[in-house]
Amino acid sequence: MFALPVLAQDVGNRSEVSVDFTGNFQSQATGLGTTDTPTDAGGFLANYRYHVNNWAGFEFNYAFTRFSQNYGPVTSTTIASTTQADANELSLAFVSTLGVRPSARIRPFVEAGTGALIFSPIAKGSTVSGFSDDRGAFMFGAGADFRVARQVSLRLGYRGLIYKTPDFAVPTQITNTVTNMSEPYVGLVIHF
User: Span 18-191: which CATH code?
Assistant: First the structure.
């Protein structure tokens, strides 16, 4: 009877950090006579994950990428304006490792959470001046850690972000639609 609390302490309360490289693919969005066709880009993702037990944990994420949003009329393939922007993400997620032990060779996970995307326009890469756009986002994902050493794993995963399309407060760039960004990623995890 006294061994159960000791066992729970042994398998839970584990922390880890990871640094990952991402591919960022935002979907095209059309609304109010305007189409937003973003470019694809690479970026990075850093996170801290705290495991409460073998089933559940919490994760804090920071991600960065830079890409261009190309806006044009729905009936034309001509680009009317472009806004190049840095996209910073801050998010918090619930993570489930499906009861797989921390010492397992392969440890799958699923996650869901919420956060914010901050789009900051870069004047040099833009045809019109705009303002920063802050967007609330819903985040979901799945992946697996592949243990390569006692405290090191390789992480492969996919994240999706759903949020309102950025418009930078430029009237000709407003679509008033919701879009999503797909982020496949790969990186290294340090467990402690």
Answer: 2.40.160.20
